[in-house]
Amino acid sequence: MEEPIVGWMRAILARALQTRGAGFGLLVVALVLFVALSADVIAPYNPNQAQPAGVLTAPALAHWLGTDQLGRDVLSRIIYGARTSVQAGVVSVGFALIAGLSIGLLAGYHGGWIDDALVLLVDALWSFPTLVLALAIAASLGPGLTNAMLAIGVVFTPIFARLVRGQTLSVRERDFVVAARALGAGPGRLMLRHIGPNVTAPIIVQTSLLVASAIVVEAALSFLGLGIEPPTASWGSMLKGGYQYMQQAPWLSFAPGTAIFVTVLAFNLLGDGLRRGLDPRLRQQGRS
Amino acid sequence: MIEYLARRLVYIVPLLFLVTLVTFSVALLLPGDPALAYIGEANMRDRVMYETMRKELGLDQPIPVQYAKWLGRVLRGDFGRSIRTREPALEGLLARFPVTLQLTTMAMAIALLIAVPVGIVSAVRPNSTADKAGTVLAMSGVAIPDFWLGIMLIYVFSVWLKVLPPSGYVPISQGLWPSFQSMLLPALALGMALAAVVMRQLRSALLEVLQQDYVRVARAKGLREALVVGRHALKNALIPVVTVIGLQMGRLFGGAVVVETIFALPGLGRLAADSIFFRDFPMLQGVVLILALAVLLANLVTDFLYALLDPRIRYR
């Protein structure tokens, strides 16, 4: 059972990586993951250690990206900040995926009043500007990374729910589902074993794109003071700190902003590549 | 068409009800006691004053009753009084609305000014240098966070070149040009992501339309390429673009929160952030509800435009 899935994933990845952009995306994503996982080993300094004697020093050999307003090494904070961003992106999108998949499958499979009620709920959440709702939920739950991730997860749930519902509606009447139903498969088995695996392709693409968006929303929440609490490093809170010293120390804004930009770009390029890999129509268009 | 419009309008009613429910719940969950916030720290120990305020605000009643009363007041245009400024919340909201409207309108105008020409050139000359440059611009525009772009724009145009103000708002009533100048950088920061999305959508839609038979016929008839693209292809390619713009309105209003904070613009977005930090419950409920209504309205207008532009659409 495992081999066909591995083979399918390998084929998708090979097709996705046909464009240079997607290859670059995968490389950068892998690099960011590596940095996030090995921050303890590769960071040259303790990211939270303040050095009052070396405040706002410009980039130099001792501190490649300079130091911040408390004398902390910016490079080390960028490295540890990768951990926060990756965690925020993966956990919040994971939450949205589980919630959205459940809602979408339930609504699309059952139809009727269950579908109407769930679609209404999803549309209501969709009506709020993403950052405004995330901000309000994060504020209700209190500052902190876990609460920020939960807030982002909630605001991203409608995206997966709408996607999965649409896919489920088109798959549920196909012959293999009808045959499984005729053979006595119950709703749970039909949704998880038969419909679920057939709606995965667009979900994979959306996941990659949403991880990028989640990283930006987490950075925005941290920038506004509702993300991770100090002194833990996060790219958004670093930008907030750097913004106040823009005239004296512009590198404080450049470094975390560039880190967010490159990471988000990489996830977007990977997502686009995967979309091409999974959609033969787009593969043709990409070559034209 | 009329049946579709009627159905869409009827659907708005339960949707609005749920939106108000979410808005009320979010403010209800905020940590802090509104009654305490109203009477102020100096009177914290005055039990009688506290209980009187709780009663006055209706906080002694069950939550469903509180919601019903709040909804009734909102329907009459009464959002309560701001805890921070003591002014009626509606007045505060109406005073800040024009700022956000000007910001988002300018952001959209900038986005279209960038996206439409670049998108057309990219589609007409696929894989050309211009197309590749457009793709890089679009990919960067999508990936660059609006708040970082805002900071970089302030650094380049205000700190370094000193040609534009770094922050602050000049109302249109004080002069069109100074107002435009004060809004240019924030609108650019906010509009870039929209420009990127529209650019990509337009390129892909136009590429598809340009391969269709009726375009081939127009070319075979000897029409100039500019007319083929401008009069025949663009009209159809713009249909999905309209949808994308409508769907991006939520992002635009959300982005206004952080862009207005960076540029110190007294708009609804900054009001939302300030209301959260000052635990200004009535103002927060008002601003969240108004922004949600703006998104709902934008989605509704998009649906109508979509139905209007594409007569092939059959709504189930």
Walk me through the structure.
The complex is a heterodimer of chains A (288) and B (316). By secondary structure, chain A is mainly alpha-helical. In chain A, 74% of the residues lie in helices and 0% in strands. Chain A contains 13 helices and no strands. The radius of gyration of chain A is 22 Å and the shape is elongated. The two termini of chain A are 37 Å apart. Chain B contains 13 helices and no strands. The chains are: A mainly alpha (288), B mainly alpha (316). Chains A and B meet through α5, α6, α10, α11 and α12 of A and α1, α6, α7, α8 and α11 of B.
In short:
The complex is a heterodimer of chains A (288) and B (316). Chain A is mostly helical and 288 residues long. Chain A contains 13 helices and no strands.
Features:
heterodimer; A: 288 residues; mainly alpha; 13 helices; elongated; B: 316 residues; 0% strand; globular
Query: Which structural category fits the helices and strands of chain B?
Result: mainly alpha
How many strand units of chain B?
A: 0
The pLDDT mean of chain B sits at 89
The major beta sheet of chain A can be summarized as: none
| SSE pattern of chain A | HHHHHHHHHHHHH
**How many beta-strand runs of chain A?**
0
Mean pLDDT over all positions of chain A: 88
Q: Give the overall silhouette of chain B.
A: globular
Residue stretches of chain A low in confidence (pLDDT < 50, at least 5 long) are: none
Count of helix runs of chain B: 13
Low-confidence residue ranges of chain B: none
Percentage of β-strand residues of chain A: under 5%
Taking all Cα atoms into account, the compactness measure Rg of chain B is 24 Å
